[in-house]
């Protein structure tokens, strides 16, 4: 079997993973030990993120003609790709959290909801809380005036009683 035939399934796998993905993030992973890598992979898996190491040439072929094409210019050195179909910021947040303890782990660039983000912008996205946290904050903001109003009415009633 020709080498090209062996590579086609890998390119197809990458293409299938990035199709309809909320986010695709490139990560430099050199210098991470096995224990740290296992913990990172476990947390990413629990968040529904596909995290794999592919050859740069395979990713290059898979990214061609997709919204991930701008990432091809970053395909140098040891890279891994984190792909999420559900939560757009999950891979970015988790990898950024591990990057604080493992300085050699670094977010390179990514495509989030069809938009390309360089390293600086990806770092800014890492600070964005998850959807659940944002919804909780919104709900708290909505409930606060009602709760304050109820407390004031209760104090007025107690004062007059």
Question: What would a concise description of this structure say?
Answer:
By secondary structure, this protein is an alpha+beta fold. The protein is 54% helix and 17% strand.
Q: Quick one: how many beta strands? A: 5
- Principal-axis shape equals elongated
- Note the quaternary state here: single chain
String of helices and strands: HEHEHEHEEHH
Instruction: Calculate the terminal CA-CA distance, rounded to whole Å.
Output: 91 Å
Helix content: 40-55%
Helices, by number, come to 6
Radius of gyration: 22 Å
Query: In this structure, how is the largest beta sheet organized?
Result: 5 strands, antiparallel
Question: Which residues form runs of ≥5 with pLDDT under 50?
Answer: none
Tell me the fraction of residues in β-strands, as a range: 15-25%
The structure class reads alpha+beta
* Biggest sheet: strand arrangement: 2-3-1-4-5
Kindly describe this structure.
The chain is α+β, with helices and mostly antiparallel strands and 161 residues long. It has six helices and five strands. Strand 4 and strand 5 form a beta hairpin. The longest helix is centred in the last third of the chain and has 30 residues. It is elongated, with a radius of gyration of 22 Å. It starts with a helix and ends with a helix. The model has no long low-confidence stretch (mean pLDDT 84).
